[in-house]
Amino acid sequence: MPALAQTLPGENQDEVLVIDGTLTIASDYRFRGLSLSDGDPALQGELTLSHRSGIYGSVWASTIAENDGADVETGFAIGLNKQIGSVQLDGSLFYYAYPGAGEANYFEALGRASVPLGKGEWGIGYAFAPGQRGTGGQANHYVNMDVEVPIGEAPITLGASLGLEQGAFGNGKIDWSLGASRQWRPFKVEIRYFDIARGEPGSRKGAALVVSLSLVTE
Fold it and tell me: Which of these, 35, 37, 202, 214, has the minimum number of CB atoms within 10 Å of its CB?
């Protein structure tokens, strides 16, 4: 899912409101294993406004391959992020909108729980989109696990993910990824390999090595 799952809204308790922004250029836009840019580079941006209570709202945008007249994907989210003991909980509603192709718009509910793993983190998430126009009237379910582990004293992080999708956007589709990232604040560089265990070859479903460069403000 988009970078919302990687943020901790309201993390800075000294400020009532916090604004975080990310601008990214990637060699491919991969979403749950599929390429939404048909293997072409994508420009992406995200802006998050969070309250120290844990409530947050985000706006997301990315260039995509032409989709029934739309060449941009936008997203709008509202959610709540809370820590209970050692467990970090995040729940949100996300609305995907495609200017010029309104019939493809849809919304889904997302939830994620994560716990510390040494200096890293292990998490599990679930996304549910009820049947609606943008899903062809069919519901969609997506379950995923991810792990991130810092290596040594250098700001290098290794990460892996595994997801299972069933419904409107996948018929038992299994996607996975392996990657590494490094930060030179305010920049972040990531290299990640994506593949699908169940799926036919093609630009949307084939394996790919994706490189991205992000400018992060926080």
Answer: 202
